[in-house]
Amino acid sequence: MKPLFGIDLTENKYNSEINSKHFTVATTPEEKKQKHDEYHMLLKIISRNMKLPRAFKTVKKIARLLAIAIILGILRPMVGLDKIPLSQIFERAPYAFYIGGACLLIWWIIALVEIIKQKTALTPGAKKKFEEFMSIKKEIYDELGVPEGTEFTDILVFQYIMKDGVPVAQEMGKHPTYRNIETKIFSDGVRLCIVDILARVEIPLNSIRAIRTVNTSIEIPRWNKKEPFTSPKYKQYNISANKSGIISSRPYHILEFEIDRETWGLHFPCYELPTFEALTYVTADKA
């Protein structure tokens, strides 16, 4: 099976071409792609300027937790059975008040700095750039034939080598093996269409053979959805994240289809299964 959105390193370890070019029916004009990339880079800089450095975020989090813990520690004897007065608690442990007050002050100062940074970065000019960026994206999707209101769907892109006819995913340096890429996926009744900013890829619906379930855990670099993975919508998938924000999920799925006697596979994370089942009228097999 050949991964549709895979990068084959079997014969050339420097290859960067994704296999989906064989099914690409339309591409974004270079001029619009460059314009999109320029705005995207600019907005990334604006977004970076709105955020606190990681060290400040860590200090803010620690200060908040310590402040809350100390306040609760002070209140507990006041409302408990002994009902110890505040003055007596201060006499017994004055350091708790000093440390708690310092933590509260640090927390509030960093939170204030964060608000100021956001307001400073989010100028009318920055808002205008964002609106222009969204307008360019809409133009691109309109030209590639994406129906209005189509939601984003994650697919998996990865590097691989072939071993005994089976694609084996390869690590991408320090990054997770798989990348979850946002695409617009829809059906026109004859074809399954997968569109990103670069191109439109089509798969004949009558070529689809199955949706395979691979009971293996995978890691992806980020969470793309508006709703958090802890929300009721995604709770059933047991998705987790480590301290670096790397997302783990299990299983993943492969939409398997056959063209000219060659088997292909479109890999996607477990939380996108309802979308693919609804568009293809194919139910995933059991792991």
List the helices and strands and how they pair.
Layout: E1 2-3, E2 6-8, E3 24-27, H1 30-50, H2 54-79, H3 86-92, H4 94-121, H5 124-143, E4 152-163, E5 166-170, E6 178-187, E7 191-195, E8 199-204, E9 208-214, E10 218-220, H6 232-235, E11 240-241, E12 247-249, E13 252-259, E14 262-269, H7 273-280
Parallel strand pairs: 1-14, 2-4
Antiparallel strand pairs: 3-8, 4-5, 4-6, 6-7, 7-8, 9-13, 10-12, 11-12, 13-14
What does this protein structure show overall?
The radius of gyration is 25 Å and the shape is elongated. β13 and β14 (262-269) form a beta hairpin. The relative contact order is 0.14. Strands 2, 3, 4, 5, 6, 7 and 8 form a 7-stranded mixed β-sheet that branches. The chain has a 4-stranded mixed β-sheet with strand order 1-14-13-9, with helices on one face. The protein has a 3-stranded antiparallel β-sheet with strand order 10-12-11, with no helix packed on it. It is 40% helix and 27% strand. It has helices at residues 30-50, 54-79, 86-92, 94-121, 124-143, 232-235, 273-280, and strands at residues 2-3, 6-8, 24-27, 152-163, 166-170, 178-187, 191-195, 199-204, 208-214, 218-220, 240-241, 247-249, 252-259, 262-269.
